[in-house]
From TrEMBL, chain A:
Transmembrane spans: none
Provenance organism: Dorcoceras hygrometricum
GO cellular component: Ctf18 RFC-like complex
Swiss-Prot/TrEMBL GO biological process terms: mitotic sister chromatid cohesion
The protein's name in its UniProt record: Chromosome transmission fidelity protein 8
Pfam families in UniProt: Ctf8 (PF09696)
InterPro entries, A to Z: Ctf8 (IPR018607)
From TrEMBL, chain B:
GO biological process: DNA replication; maintenance of mitotic sister chromatid cohesion
Protein keywords: DNA replication
Highest taxon above the source species: Eukaryota
Protein's name according to its UniProt entry: Sister chromatid cohesion protein DCC1
Record's GO cellular component terms: chromatin; chromosome, centromeric region; Ctf18 RFC-like complex
Family stated for the protein in its record: Belongs to the DCC1 family.
Length: 174, 392
């Protein structure tokens, strides 16, 4: 069995894809888990002319850099031409092709532990809580502590009862 | 893509070209999902043009790990996972750019997928051991050659016959490596199928060639291609097979403009052929073998026993030395299996005996010394003694 690797970009003009890579996981608030589409993850900033970037996710800020990959990465798309698959015999014969649709040469890599942002306004905060995900790590990893600490501080700082428009916040804290 | 975008989707360009003192919102695309059909392949810079110019192919059976082949090399494909979150941001396509008049305030870099890892390539030796088995199912013989076209072509079932495309479908190696493999098995393409010639047939045509050489008083170091092919055709061999015989037993020393040329008999291949022929029945006493062998080898070829290295082994039984056929070309190409068979054949090998049976082993990134270290135990009784290799 053979799978041909094609390139539809033509004459090697493969468009470059971007990668934003960070440690851990980004988790949407439970109310948004089923509708991630168009949901903001965070804000990517380039504060100076250097290749240093910040990525603000919720009330976490990550600092990272743009790195050139030692080896480029091709983005391949698997294309199946299996129009006679229902025939049942030798389904592996239904031809598959891989199409090169892009190339990755750089990524913006955030490999530092996230820094908590504690000086932002409550309006902005609520916006973030409403709409943006948070970064977590698996149990046993050190960031878990940070998360716990953050819960504690913010639940004290924001008393939902004093807030006229507290519905979203309740969603988050429940 | 959706027809109405809520915001302008900036693509990879917006992220990679982000200006100092500016920012961009990163969001999930409206088509965000697992997108299992998107695969990342990490590879050397030098391989990128190969892929982009569509010169690579993945090969393998459904139950095998696929390999990636360029024209000349074979690579294993390994999936390397990551525990990081890798957000993939594609370039904005044309439709998205239509919405570009909204101003930069709304620019969003949209993530299509979080990648679980990427494929990486490791250069490996081609896996061609099956080639010998496949081609040995149905070697080309005198019977078949004399059958000619008595049976309707379309009606005969093609058992054990393989076309080039069948071989590339079944075997994991690059085109160049597969051609080398076919060449080393002395295979030839007959009516579209890659075949080996059966021993009797091969012996027949070589003897015919040597016979013609004597009859026509040709020099074995200056065989005229056209004359040889014509003579063999007159003897009843097809031109294709006659050319094959030339390629197998001779080397081209001079090429004419028209593709014709002058060939010289390859001493080693002729000597090996006759040695195999004699030893087909089993082991023989060395002296009897050598006498018979020298008688068979044509005049002008110096048949010294050394020329048979890698083809025969000798052993002492009592006072007599015996010789038997043991050909490197019949051994597996993977080092592990090769050494296992070698040490089953003999517990201990001197270097001069072992070398012809291992020098063709090639594993990318590993030298022969490395292979010996990995698969053998080397003992050397004294500093100037010959090292002896045994199984590890």
């Amino acid at each position: 069995m053979q799978i041909k690797v094609k390139c539809s970009c033509g004459e090697g003009n493969c468009p470059e894809w971007a990668v934003v890579e960070l440690q851990g996981f980004v988790e949407a608030q439970p109310s948004f888990q089923d509708r991630l589409h168009d949901l903001q993850i965070g804000l990517l900033c380039r504060p100076s002319s250097q290749e240093t970037y910040t990525f603000t996710v919720g009330y976490h800020e990550l600092t990272g850099t743009k790195v050139t990959l030692k080896k480029p990465i091709l983005v391949l798309k698997k294309i199946k031409h299996g129009n006679d698959e229902c025939e049942g015999h030798r389904p592996e014969k239904s031809s598959v092709e891989l199409d090169v649709i892009g190339i990755i040469r750089h990524k913006i890599l955030f490999k530092t532990r996230p820094k908590a942002l504690i000086s932002i306004s409550s309006v902005r905060l609520r916006f973030l809580f409403n709409r943006t995900p948070t970064i977590t790590r698996r149990k046993g990893q050190r960031w878990e502590l940070l998360t716990l600490w953050r819960h504690h501080v913010w639940e004290q700082a924001l008393n939902p009862k004093d807030d006229n428009d507290s519905q979203d916040w309740c969603l988050y804290s429940s | 893509m959706e027809h109405s975008q809520p915001e302008y989707y900036g693509g990879a360009e917006a992220v990679l070209g982000l200006q100092p003192n500016s920012s961009i919102s990163v969001a999930y695309n409206s088509l965000f999902g697992p997108h299992d059909d998107l695969i990342l392949l990490e590879l050397d810079d030098k391989l990128v043009p190969e892929v982009i110019h569509e010169r690579v192919v993945l090969r393998g059976q459904p139950d095998e790990d696929a390999v990636l082949c360029t024209d000349t090399k074979t690579y294993a494909i390994k999936f390397v996972g990551t525990s990081n979150s890798v957000f993939l941001i594609p370039p904005s396509d044309k439709l998205m750019q239509v919405c570009n008049d909204k101003g930069d305030d709304n620019v969003v870099a949209s993530v299509i997928k979080v990648s679980p890892g990427s494929m990486e390539l490791v250069e490996i030796a081609p896996k061609l051991d099956r080639l010998r088995t496949l081609l040995s199912q149905n070697p080309y013989s005198f019977d078949e050659a004399s059958e000619m076209d008595t049976v309707d072509e379309a009606e005969t079932p093609k058992i054990g016959l393989y076309r080039w495309n069948d071989l590339t479908d079944m075997l994991q190696g690059s085109d160049v490596e597969l051609r080398l493999g076919l060449q080393s098995l002395l295979a030839v393409e007959i009516d579209g199928y890659w075949r080996t010639l059966d021993d009797k047939y091969m012996n027949g045509i070589l003897n015919m060639l040597l016979h013609d050489t004597i009859l026509q008083d040709w020099s074995i170091n200056a065989l005229n291609q056209d004359a040889v092919l014509c003579a063999l055709e007159a003897d009843g061999y097809s031109r294709n097979i006659a050319s094959h015989c030339l390629r197998v037993f001779c080397d081209k020393v001079h090429e004419d403009a028209g593709g014709s040329g002058i060939w010289t008999l390859n001493a080693r291949r002729v000597c090996v052929h006759f040695a195999r022929e004699i030893l087909r029945e089993g082991k023989m006493k060395l002296q009897i073998f050598v006498d018979e062998w020298i008688r068979k080898v044509p005049d002008g070829i110096n048949a010294s026993f050394d020329i048979l290295e890698g083809e025969v082994l000798t052993e002492k039984i009592g006072v007599e030395t015996w010789v038997y056929s043991f050909s490197v070309s019949s051994l597996p190409c993977t080092p592990k299996e090769r050494f296992s068979i070698l040490f089953r054949e003999r517990l201990r090998w001197e270097w001069k005996d072992l070398e012809p049976f291992v020098r063709d082993l090639s594993v990318p990134g590993l030298t022969l010394e490395g292979l010996l270290l990995k698969y053998t135990r080397r003992t050397q009784p004294t500093v100037d003694a010959e090292p002896v290799f045994s199984a590890r």
